[in-house]
Amino acid sequence: MQVYLNGAYLDASEAHISPDDRGFLFADGLYEALLAYHGRILLGEPHAARMRAGLTALQIDTSPADRLLELGERLVALNQLTDRPALIYAQVTRGSAPRRHRFPPAGTPPTCYLFAKPFASQPAELFASGCAAITVPDTRGSRCDIKTIGLLANVLANEAAHAAGALEALFVRDGVIIEGSHSNVMAVIRGELVTYPSCNYILTGVTRNCVLDLARTMGIPVREGPIFASEVYAADELFLTGTTLEIMPIAHLDGRPIGAGRPGPVATRLFAAYRQLSQ
Ligand SMILES: Cc1ncc(COP(=O)(O)O)c(C=O)c1O
Question: Of the N and C termini of the chain, which has fewer Cβ atoms inside 10 Å?
């Protein structure tokens, strides 16, 4: 596998990162995960814009965001992934320097690493049946809008889901379901598509925004507001959105059925429209 590291394309076995890297020492960096179909990145501009905004917030050089799409598509081609769906992972850290909390000297180059590999969607049967999810308290901080590599709370939440036989864990903050460990959450309640508003407590998903646009185009009423954990079992539908989960219906939450306990019509229509985008 060919990867990209700090200006060079090289074999994955030759890509080495210093133990002094601030990503390793402090989780001082961010990442993006993107999909490419037929060699072209899906929804590339919003991914690059989110990376640029995150790097700006972290005061890291934004030039990796300017090159994200070019580097990603080049890697897809180099790895001969243009004939199948590919996942591109891109990570930027504040670079390598002797450990101390404050920023390293000006001019310390960021570390920029990308890899691409074949992407497999979740199994068709799971989209057809809907998945299981659990709720967990949100133990994260207040800058969840940055796609930080500091994902400890997300990792623990997702592992709890896995241990419970579920696909995803939904974070609950102040009684409201705000997002998943690696996805956004949408509900259909009294004919409206409801999802948590874009703010510092969630990562505003590229898929989320795309799905909201599709819904508006299809004439589905959209409301950015709370999904109360106490009321969620009365929702007609609940589903996840994300680059890797695409649009995944939730059939059971904490062991209780949502709606009829299978994917609903809104998620099904939106998923069909979303899949069209990758054709
Ligand atoms: C915490 C969190 N929320 C939401 C998402 C969905 O974002 P996107 O649709 O841009 O993949 C992700 C994706 O990894 C995530 O980690």
Answer: C
Name residue 159's amino acid: E
State in Å: Cα 157 to ligand 1 middle. Answer: 14
Q: Can you read off the two tokens belonging to residue 194? A: 């409801």
pLDDT for 124 equals: 98
117 a catalytic residue: no
User: For ligand 1, atom 8, which residue shows the shortest CA distance?
Assistant: 205
**Domains of the chain: which residue ranges?**
2-118, 124-276
Alpha carbons 72 and 60: distance in angstroms, whole number: 20
The pLDDT confidence band at residue 121, using thresholds 50, 70 and 90, is very high
Topology of the domain covering 124-276? D-amino Acid Aminotransferase; Chain A, domain 2 (3.20.10)
The DSSP call for residue 231 is T
pLDDT (average), residues 9-18:
98
Confidence (pTM) = 0.98
Q: Is domain 2-118 classified as CATH 1.10.486.10?
A: no
> Residue 278 and residue 201: Cα distance in Å, rounded?
29
